[in-house]
């Protein structure tokens, strides 16, 4: 008996079976002329975070929409454990316990913050609005508790949501997960419009969901976030599922290679400074605007200067005040030695300053215009005589821009239907069409995957050859060092430090932004 006991004890116990929450069974989705998803079989388990990664156009968002019932599969089935019906509509997915959070947060600007937290239940509340189903103090406390999970407990519940910035808008949308019952939470690029410090709140939310036994599907192109959150990673390429791997058994380089089919080469930091005799194109002196206070710096010809900081540091206020998008309270801005004080973006373009907004969907292009119209918006005068457009000349120029910037879809495609990376190329090409001396780029790779990001980096680096002065505003320390010659770190509205990219680390930048000592 002792021998049998010894033998039995030497046999490793089988791990307990995991609970399947959903299965995509041979799912495919075909649009006219396009295979978006092809024969994907994938399951999610209770209490896990499953990341879905892929380049733009890989099919990851379509896969998420199929699971959320926003698209009906052309082939295969979407199965949610414990739900007998088909998942072919958003309401069916909600009934099955599948909750989708979009990349672009669904926010009603005229509703209060509190009303937006309860927005998902609006259609199911009958004649009453969902925030009216819970009364008085309990309603406010439940709303604050939900917002507290995403770091926004102190926000004014009665404030119109339209006054929130991009990051807080996304946090309000994510808080809905705390007031809506679900078993599967889909986060479709929801961190694309947030910053590094907001990611800590997303991390806290995901941890709470995992502990509650939910399945979190995390769609993202940001490798640090994927490896910080995910238990498993499913990689999509050209509509197909390439592989599913345990996060502990792989590396970011391996995942990126699976995503784009080839090894990704890291960019070397650019040289420390422009030529010593290069002229100063942009000079900013004692500029105060919004949360920026008394900022001074200069940028030479053929130099890229980064502005890095956390939310509230003043980085976007500075960029917008330089480019005529925001009123400047004090200070002066000079371009090639001449003082400029643009009262509008159009005036800034005339004075040699082009600006790329961090919110390209709202400010970067007109969503109802095609690529050709968006590309020439800032230079219409070059293609018209006394108000009459020379369309042939315009089309020739557009064809050249589409080719030079590698914009997919051609001149006649709606810009709004392009991937994030291609939309950004349209915005950059449009900004450069006026041949500005100074180019200000606010979060130029926000919401863009790794392949398109390298593409954008190459375009920005190409501005050096065009002898431009470039200011890159970014919330990512790694990007600031990879793209810029020098980096200014803003904290509490002032410059807290300046670093040469070639000899600095992300730790130097983040410590300075947080108020710590650089080691």
From TrEMBL:
<feature type="domain" description="ABC transporter">
    <location>
        <begin position="276"/>
        <end position="517"/>
    </location>
</feature>
<protein>
    <submittedName>
        <fullName>Sugar ABC transporter ATP-binding protein</fullName>
    </submittedName>
</protein>
<dbReference type="GO" id="GO:0016887">
    <property type="term" value="F:ATP hydrolysis activity"/>
</dbReference>
<dbReference type="InterPro" id="IPR050107">
    <property type="entry name" value="ABC_carbohydrate_import_ATPase"/>
</dbReference>
<feature type="domain" description="ABC transporter">
    <location>
        <begin position="22"/>
        <end position="263"/>
    </location>
</feature>
<keyword id="KW-0067">ATP-binding</keyword>
<keyword id="KW-0547">Nucleotide-binding</keyword>
<dbReference type="InterPro" id="IPR017871">
    <property type="entry name" value="ABC_transporter-like_CS"/>
</dbReference>
<feature type="compositionally biased region" description="Basic and acidic residues">
    <location>
        <begin position="326"/>
        <end position="341"/>
    </location>
</feature>
<dbReference type="Pfam" id="PF00005">
    <property type="entry name" value="ABC_tran"/>
</dbReference>
<feature type="region of interest" description="Disordered">
    <location>
        <begin position="321"/>
        <end position="342"/>
    </location>
</feature>
<keyword id="KW-0813">Transport</keyword>
<dbReference type="InterPro" id="IPR003593">
    <property type="entry name" value="AAA+_ATPase"/>
</dbReference>
<dbReference type="InterPro" id="IPR027417">
    <property type="entry name" value="P-loop_NTPase"/>
</dbReference>
<dbReference type="GO" id="GO:0005524">
    <property type="term" value="F:ATP binding"/>
</dbReference>
<keyword id="KW-0677">Repeat</keyword>
<dbReference type="InterPro" id="IPR003439">
    <property type="entry name" value="ABC_transporter-like_ATP-bd"/>
</dbReference>
